[in-house]
Amino acid sequence: MVLTEDAELMERMLLYRDHGMSKQRRYWHVVPGYNYRMTNLQAALGLAQMERIEQFLAQRESVVAMYDERLGDLKGIRTPSTATWARNIYWLYSIQVDHEIIGITRDELAGRLQEHGVDTRPVFPPLHDQPAYGGSDLDFPVSREFSERGLSLPTGNTLTIDDTERVCNILRDIVKT
Fold first, then answer.
1. What Cα–Cα distance (Å) separates residue 32 from each residue in 19, 88, 128?
2. What share of the chain is helix, strand, coil (3-state, %, to 5)?
3. Please, what are the domains in the chain?
4. Contact (Cβ atoms closer than 8 angstroms) between residue 171 and residue 152
5. Chain-centre distance of CA 76, in angstroms?
6. Confidence band of 177 (pLDDT split at 50, 70, 90)
7. Which H helix or E strand runs over 31?
C-alpha cells in the first residue's frame, strides 16, 4: 500500500502497478510494469491497520525511546538518529557496532544475542553491490560501512517494553564483557 498526496506520483504508481499499460490503449505497455494490485482481503487488512497506525507508531516510539535511553551511552554502539524535520516510523532500529571498541564483530554480537533468544538482522548490503542492480564498481563507503557494522534490533507492533528492557539488558551485558 502506498499513500501520497502527489497526484502526478499517484498516476505514475498506478501505471507501474498495472503492468505499465497505457490507459488510452488497451494492452499497450508504455513502461515495464508489474501486477501490484492488491486483493480485496489485502486491502481490507491494510485499511484496518491504517485505522490503528497512530497506536502502532506510539508503541514503536516507546520502544525506540527505551533503546535510545538504555543503549545511547554504550561505547562502541552507535544508535540511530532522526532528522528534526522527519518522523521516523521505526520499521527497523539499526545500531552500528564498532568491533574495534567492543572487541566483537557485528555478526558475533548477533550470534551472542541469538544465544539469549534475541533475533536480529544485519543491515542490508548496499544496492550498488547487488548483482540485480548492476553490481557497480562505484564505491559508496558510507553505505558499505553501515552495511558491515549495522545490526537491526527487534521492533514491531507486538514488542513490549518488558521485551525491550530484556534486549537492552542482554546487549549491555554482552558489550560489557
1. 7, 31, 21
2. 50, 10, 40
3. 7-50 (no CATH), 53-176 (3.90.1150.10)
4. no
5. 21
6. low
7. none
> Mapping DSSP to helix (H, G, I), strand (E, B) and coil, where does residue 93 land?
strand
CB atoms within 10 A of CB 139: 10
Cell of 59: 508503541
Instruction: Calculate the alpha carbon distances from 78 to 75, 81, 149, 152, 174 in Å.
Output: 8, 9, 10, 12, 15
pLDDT at 26: 79
Residue 128 has what pLDDT? Answer: 82
CA distance 98 to 94: 13
CB-CB contact of 68 with 78 (8 Å): no
CA 49 to chain centre: 18
Identify which of 55, 43, 40 has the alpha carbon closest to the alpha carbon of residue 3: 43
Say what the pTM is: 0.79
Give the list of residues 6+ apart from residue 116 with CB closer than 8 angstroms, or none. 170
Task: Output the nine-digit C-alpha cell for 47.
Answer: 485499511
pLDDT of residue 2: 83
Whether the Cβ atoms of residue 111 and residue 141 lie closer than 8 Å to each other: no
CB 151 within 8 A of CB 106: yes
pLDDT for 50-107, tens place per residue? 999 999 999 999 999 999 999 999 999 999 998 999 988 889 999 999 999 999 999 9
State the amino acid at position 162 in one-letter form: D
